[in-house]
């Protein structure tokens, strides 16, 4: 593969990179899942930040800077180390995890809309949630086909209006709730809630460290790790900084502090207001906002915030709906995928790839029709996303280590310090997350554990085998390096 790079203007500041990275990671949909862990959330967030976010950021920054002048992202990175077949597998996994991710984001938006229209009970209605996902995903797809100007305007304001604003408000209201000396949710734990509480001298107290006697108690860690994924998307811009060796680590530190603060304080606010036994992981944010606003006699603001949250989720889908598919266009141009899949609309959207991902989203959304508990369907899809995405990260870490030996003279504007150690830490954390993604959560009524494991296993193996089969069938069509 080519290893030359194209020089880009060195205009990206440390602050800009920090906020770009934070924006790529932060999502309010994960706050209820972390809040459900009560005080053990500190352990989970710290683990995900130190052992997943930071290693992924540093390793992907090196790879991104080394191949800054080429399209394809992880396709180029992994392909340079292990060949185009493995490179295609990596970009495929990155694409398909995003496809599996869409239903969870839209389920979160569906719950917000349910509260916004004064029908909170719909948030737990599988048929409503499934239909919402299907309808709004296809609407978003056809909007993206047109490449309209309104699309860029919607996505540009989505993060601020739908994530930052509601996030700050829920934290402020949480502080107000505590100052008003209202009942605290994390003080209402019972002895039966063994995953987050324990009995000491006859009194029920919150756990500050997870119960390691049962893997089921740790399953939420996999979902929380997913919330910290995606940093590699922005890491490719490290070479656009004047002094990436110094600026990029500082930017990552700043973004990690922002992510840690918003996730931690936002989760604490929800845990303080909603008792653990009542918390729903897909609608917990709206549960908390509803209760908080009633306490300060501002219930009129709930529909406004609900639609802000939904807008942020929908904007996120719109901003990503064609992006990952475009990553696969590089593989189609080189013969790995059939040329038919490289067809685009007049606006440049990868039409056929987007139609395929729309069909997959529709099938996955149907899980909400057949599963009794919306929270279980939400977490199941999150677990499947984690499993698929983590395999891609394992390939990325391995590629970085191999390329240090295979191409030692490759120009790397940013070079990660102690890369084997950092990548090794990332690999260990990723493997822990991968194992836990197959473990049914003790916190949810998952029903038959075997069915849960089977769905995650079949989905993961299926999504992993598909690119390998495609690459094998198309090997005679693949253009040489």
Could you characterize what this model shows?
This protein has 481 residues and is mainly alpha-helical. Helices cover 66% and strands 2% of the residues. It contains 18 helices and two strands. The protein has helices at 14-25, 31-35, 41-66, 74-82, 84-116, 126-146, 149-179, 220-227, 232-235, 244-273, 284-295, 302-320, 323-333, 351-365, 367-370, 374-406, 419-436, 449-473; strands at residues 197-200, 203-206. A two-stranded antiparallel ribbon has the order 1-2. β1 and β2 (203-206) form a beta hairpin. α4 packs antiparallel against α5, α4 (74-82) crosses α16 (374-406) and α8 crosses α17 (419-436). It is globular and about 65 Å long.
Oligomer: single chain
Distance from first to last alpha carbon: 5 Å
> In one word, what is the shape?
globular
Class of secondary structure makeup = mainly alpha
Largest sheet: 2 strands, antiparallel
* % residues in beta strands: under 5%
Spans of 5+ residues with little confidence (pLDDT < 50)?
Answer: 1-6
- Number of strand segments: 2
With helices defined by DSSP (H or I, 4 residues minimum), what is the helix count?
Answer: 18
Side by side, the strands of the main sheet go 1-2
**How much is the radius of gyration in Å?**
22 Å
What is the averaged pLDDT score?
83
Series of secondary-structure elements, N-terminal to C-terminal: HHHHHHHEEHHHHHHHHHHH
Helix content: 55-70%
């Amino acid at each position: 593969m080519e290893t030359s790079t194209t020089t880009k203007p060195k205009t990206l500041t440390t602050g800009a990179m920090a906020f770009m990275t934070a924006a790529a990671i932060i999502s309010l949909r994960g706050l209820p899942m972390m809040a459900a862990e009560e005080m053990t959330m500190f352990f989970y967030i710290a683990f995900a930040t130190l052992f997943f976010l930071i290693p992924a950021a540093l390793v992907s920054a090196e790879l991104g800077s080394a191949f800054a002048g080429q399209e394809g992202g992880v396709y180029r990175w992994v392909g340079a180390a292990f060949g185009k077949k493995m490179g295609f597998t990596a970009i495929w996994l990155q694409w398909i995890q995003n496809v599996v991710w869409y239903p969870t984001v839209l389920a979160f938006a569906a719950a917000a809309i349910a509260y916004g229209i004064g029908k909170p009970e719909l948030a737990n209605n599988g048929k409503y949630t499934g239909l919402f996902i299907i309808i709004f995903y296809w609407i978003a797809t056809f909007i993206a086909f047109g490449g309209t100007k309104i699309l860029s305007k919607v996505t540009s304001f989505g993060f601020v209006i739908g994530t930052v604003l509601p996030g700050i408000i829920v934290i402020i209201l949480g502080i107000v709730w505590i100052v008003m000396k209202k009942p605290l949710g994390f003080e209402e734990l019972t002895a039966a809630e063994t995953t987050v509480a324990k009995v000491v001298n006859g009194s029920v107290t919150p756990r500050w460290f997870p119960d390691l006697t049962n893997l089921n108690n740790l399953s939420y860690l996999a979902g929380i790790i997913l919330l910290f994924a995606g940093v590699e998307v922005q890491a490719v811009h490290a070479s656009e900084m004047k002094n990436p060796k110094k600026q990029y680590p500082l930017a990552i530190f700043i973004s990690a502090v922002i992510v840690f603060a918003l996730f931690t304080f936002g989760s604490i606010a929800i845990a303080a207001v909603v008792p653990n036994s009542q918390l729903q992981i897909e609608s917990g944010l709206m549960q908390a906002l509803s209760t908080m606003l009633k306490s300060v006699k501002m219930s009129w603001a709930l529909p406004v915030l609900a639609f802000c949250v939904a807008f942020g989720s929908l904007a996120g889908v719109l901003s990503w709906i064609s992006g990952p598919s475009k990553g696969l266009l590089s593989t189609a141009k080189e013969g790995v995928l059939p040329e038919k899949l490289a067809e685009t609309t007049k606006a440049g959207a990868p039409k056929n790839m987007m139609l395929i991902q729309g069909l997959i989203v529709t099938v996955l959304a149907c899980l909400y029709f057949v599963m009794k508990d919306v929270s279980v369907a939400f977490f199941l899809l999150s677990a499947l996303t984690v499993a698929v995405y983590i395999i891609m990260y394992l390939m990325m870490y391995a590629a970085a280590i191999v390329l240090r030996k295979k191409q030692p003279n490759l120009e790397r504007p940013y070079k990660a310090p102690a890369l084997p150690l950092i990548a090794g830490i990332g690999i260990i954390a990723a493997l822990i997350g991968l194992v836990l993604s197959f473990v049914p959560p003790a916190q949810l009524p998952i029903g038959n554990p075997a069915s849960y494991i089977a769905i995650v296993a079949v989905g993961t193996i299926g999504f992993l085998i598909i690119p390998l089969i495609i690459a094998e069938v198309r090997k005679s069509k693949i253009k040489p390096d």
